[in-house]
């Protein structure tokens, strides 16, 4: 089979590890310009090594043993390279090294890949996102054990049927206590995460298999839950609450007026509050969700009520000590408080904190004529398409628009009589 790769093996001394005039000898495997190093487990007298010629002078027993070790390693590397080509497998320096060390099967398994992504690449992901990947990993492992009767699987053995069977398993899985059954959109999120992780294996050359080649993402778009303006006003007016619940109410209302997600709200600090040349107050920050991928800022003009809420907590002890704008309340506690607040406001809906972001996008902005482009920027979306999915046009907006049209048509009709 004709090679489509550049492949070479060379040797070098790690002189930084030298001791008593001897340094460890390493082999370097290079494939298509990318390389990896492997120890020969031999130490060589620095004075006897010729780096340019890759040779060792002297004919003593020690030198002969090092030469033999080098020869055997070259044979092993060549055999591994040829075997990978003839097996129609991915070929790179890491896989050749793994095969010579007898670890190539581990390198090409699903468990290894998930662990590599969720541990080695963890610093590239936000904590909330990483938690979702751990969830996908857990369900894949559960599927392997319960349905495939195996603890692991090689990446080359994962095919379209594996993906389909995993999807069927998830949709029919009996949920754990306190969990909701897995619906279509939840399944699609697990599939997308699985696909992204598998993409890491493809990029690293750990497999040439592409099981997601025919995978189709099918999201069912639903209306996003939000509050009507009357409901928001009732929450504003609730005052028969404990002090911690009042803080939650103010945080929720502030988010309804600014569109801030919970994670951005709790990290909001003085440095994010800016005043422009005309004296207007703004929030200027980068979304925590995107800061590992983009440094694009979003800006939100602070409405008078939002400014009032900020002033309300200016002298709070936690705010003084932490430098944040508001006291910290955990997400779990916030959502628990919101159930109490909704009941006090006579709102028969299961409200979560994220409803505030939806309310800002629809009830506060779009329904009041704020252009979609402006709403998209304030929400920190990279694409306006995300904003279109995130918000919905409600009957009230349609009624207002059609009422204006009806008035214009009536006016034109009378004008022509």
From TrEMBL:
Entries under Gene3D superfamilies matching the protein: 1.10.150.130, Intergrase catalytic core
PROSITE patterns the UniProt entry points to: TYR_RECOMBINASE
Name of the protein in its database record: Tyrosine-type recombinase/integrase
Coiled-coil annotated spans: 67-101
Species: Pedobacter gandavensis
Alphabetized UniProt keyword annotations: Coiled coil, DNA recombination, DNA-binding
Tyr recombinase domain: residues covered: 222-403
Family: Belongs to the 'phage' integrase family.
Domain of life: Bacteria
InterPro entries assigned to the protein according to its UniProt record, in alphabetical order: Arm-DNA-bind_5, DNA_brk_join_enz, Integrase-like_cat_sf, Integrase_catalytic, Integrase_recombinase_N, SAM-like_dom, Tyrosine_recombinase_XerCD
UniProt keyword Phosphoprotein present: no
